[in-house]
Amino acid sequence: MANKIANNIKLGVFVIAGLLLLIFALYMIGKKSNMFGSSFTLRARFRNVDGLRAGNNVRYAGIETGTVEKVLILNDTTIEVVMSIDEKARSYIRKNAQTTIGNEGLMGNKVVNIYPNPVQGELVKENDLLQTVQQADIGNMIGTLTRTNDNAAIIASELVETVKRINSSPVLWRILSDTTLPANLSATMAGVRSSAEHLNHSVAELQVIVNDIHAGKGAAGLLLEDTAARGTASRALNNIHNVTAEANGLMQRLDSIASILQSGVGNKDGMLYGLLSDTSFTQRLSRSLNNVENGTAAFNEDMEALKHNFLLKGYFKKQARKKAQ
Amino acid sequence: MKPNKPAKQLQAFFDEAGRIARFTAWYFRQAIRPRYEFRELIRQCFIIGYQSLGLVVLTGFIMGLVLTMQLRPTLVDYGVESQIPAMVAIAVVREVGPVITALIFAGKIGSSIGAELGSMRVTEQIDAMEVSGTNPYKYLVVTRVTAATLMLPILVLLSDTISLYGAYLGVNIKTVTSANLFIWQVFDVLDFTDLMPAFIKTFFFGFAVGMIGCYKGYNSTRGTEGVGRSANSAVVLSSVMIFIIDLLVVQVTDIMGFN
Amino acid sequence: MDTRENIANTTDAVISIRGVYKAFGSNKVLDDFNMNLQRGQSKVVLGRSGSGKSVLIKCIIGLLTPEAGTINVFGQNVLNMSQEQLDVIRVKIGFLFQSNALYDSMTVRENLEFPMRRHSIKLSEKEANERVVEALKNVGLEHTIDMMPSELSGGMKKRIALARTLILKPDIILYDEPTTGLDPITGREITTLIKEIQHKYQTSSIIISHDMKCVKNTADSIALLLNGKCYTEGTYSELAISDDPNVKQFFE
């Protein structure tokens, strides 16, 4: 009898172990297809889904967030993909997010990729239709390549034509075979070299003047002492004048840039707006501002502490009295 | 005489098929009516299920390990070594696990049922049961067939698990994969359409093995020699049946779109 | 209960077989067979091997169904009975199988308990145990109670099988070649046991046998089965002096 009970227990353990394995397997598979967590539906329309089918994964910025529920043919050029997305992803996906169909690995299954748009948008709602970007598919690529090829062929034939014409042109050949041309060229090069030497000399002179100023000799003394330097100085003054004018121009340009920037921030389509409204960037900025604020506060505190330091008390009191007068 | 022989064989074949069909129909008629031999059913579940566990676990483990080691060179050639867990999981869960386990089961359980009932038949134990107020069909056949039908799926689940464990060790002979990653890779590739048809067909395998074993044993004749023949033909016929059922299930699931 | 009343109402024949016909394919085993078994009588059916003696008693208990004829047990035709009625009758008829038919997978105790359990006889654990022990005492094998049949010798198996037949305290016992396959000494012991049981429980019995020593010791009356018919009937001493060659061949 005891043996019988022991056998029954063994049988029970055996059966329960089997059932638990079954439940585990079903759970693991079910979890993968979002069967147990709460989820919501998003849709996207494509011209071509490249063999995507129900059960394929959906990724948001590369993270698995759901599965394809249905692939429907709406009309001859529109395929609608209905996706079941994990509820947890709801607070990240925005209405202007872009979807494409891609591959999982080189030979893997098809997958729907959802990419966040750099421009801030509203959060998605149940059953929203996401924007799609048609991925370059091999058919299109081959089409483009064919066109490129055709163009290349045309260019090549025209090139051949050109070379033929060059070959048959006596004027061009005369230029190419003219011996005076290289001589002229070398003369020009010599001129350039001497100009460069002049320039070097001027720079050295300027260096001397600057050094004198550093040594404390007054510009007026210099002018009296050395008449040769007078010309140089007036040239320098002229230069300074020019620089000032240039700086003015620069300031004006900066002004106009600032106004463009301002209008850029106002314009929602602009890149700048995107940069500023990028939540993570904004957060970073406000964090930095906070840090600065914190730093200032800390400095104020230090000052306060210093005021109460008995060594410096006298000094601060004196200051206070001065203020009172 | 000679031209008559194939015709006779054909006749014998259809005769046998008809008898098996009637024997099977009888099962359903008897199984739904009281009285239910519940205690004997439990006992048979223990004998048929639990006592086959060791054998099934051993073969399952070796199967998973060997499959992994055999697949590796080809997959390495293709540069998809990381797909070994996925390949083995699909192979084991969909086909190799159920079929190999069912064949082992047919060898062990089919023959033992055939021999047991056969010897009970020739030593008049079946008659003795009937005289003792027991419906021997219910007591012997219904319990064994039901037990085989219910226990084989559980054995297959355990065997699949052990096979995958074997595969895990096989993967770790040459490379290092964490158990976590292995499990993830296995379940990533599996789907309900892989697991459910494979799981459901094991019920049919178990039923076929139990039914054929019982039929051969129950209708055993001609003394001890007949017992041996019953056991033998039970194993042969149920092994063939397993493949036929496997083929049918593949066709049906294909038609239904679970591919 | 009504079967008991029926017995009182009818004649003393507990079993009456009329015009039974049974064939396996073209082989006619029983062909218009007639026989009566009186209350308390011990009748031996004598016949050659394969002459259909076993078939006869299997028809009586409903294991085989004859194509024609009636078999009345306690005045009721076995051949028209539902499964439930048949089970009621079977409690009253013990059957000792030629090959003992002990259940290989059960101990001696479980073998003996099996008919009691299966016939849904309400007995307490203690009463059931007492019955098992009593039945084993009758055959002198109390010590084998927890052994498996495979551990027993041929003679012991036969006695355990007899104990199992006795456990329901049947009114009629059908013996299918009780001494076949046993050595002469064991055969004699079994014969003695059969006689003891007949006296102790006042059972009526049909004994299938071609062991003449057994037949001589146990038979009140002998029926000779020949070509599917009851060729002749009589006591041992009557038939032993018969000049009919068909009868004589058994007594030489």
Mean pLDDT of chain A: 75
Which geometry of chain B do the CA atoms define?
Answer: elongated
CATH class of the largest domain in chain A reads Mainly Beta
Unreliable stretches of chain A (pLDDT < 50, length at least 5) are none
Summarize the main sheet of chain A: 7 strands, mixed, barrel
Number of helices of chain B: 9
Tally of DSSP helical segments of chain A: 9
Question: Would you tell me the structural class of the helices and strands of chain B?
Answer: mainly alpha
Number of domains of chain B: 1
What does the radius of gyration of chain B come to? 21 Å
Largest sheet of chain B: none
Any overview of this molecule?
The complex is a heterotrimer of chains A (325), B (259) and C (252). Chain A is of the alpha/beta class. Chain A folds into five domains: 1-32; 38-135, Elongation Factor Tu (Ef-tu), domain 3, CATH 2.40.30; 140-181; 194-252, no CATH class; 279-319. Chain A is built from nine helices and seven strands, in the order H-E-E-E-E-E-E-E-H-H-H-H-H-H-H-H. Chain A has helices at residues 2-32, 138-168, 170-177, 180-215, 219-225, 227-266, 271-277, 279-308, 310-324, and strands at residues 39-46, 57-60, 63-75, 78-86, 98-103, 110-115, 128-132. A seven-stranded mixed barrel of chain A has the order 1-4-3-2-6-5-7. Chain A is flat. The N and C termini of chain A lie far apart (111 Å). The longest helix of chain B has 39 residues, at 84-122. Chain B starts with a helix and ends with a helix. The mean pLDDT of chain B is 89. Chain C has one domain (2-251): Rossmann fold, CATH 3.40.50.300. Helices cover 39% and strands 25% of the residues of chain C. In chain C, helix 7 (184-201) links the parallel strand 7 (172-176) and strand 8 (204-208). The radius of gyration of chain C is 18 Å and the shape is globular. The termini of chain C are far apart. The model of chain C is unreliable at 1-10 (pLDDT under 50). Chains in contact: A-B, B-C. Chain A binds chain B through residues 7-8, 10-11, 14-15, 17-19, 21-22, 25-26, 28-30, 32-33, 55, 107, and chain B through 42-43, 45-46, 49-50, 53, 80, 153-155, 157-158, 160-161, 183, 187-188, 190-192, 195, 199.
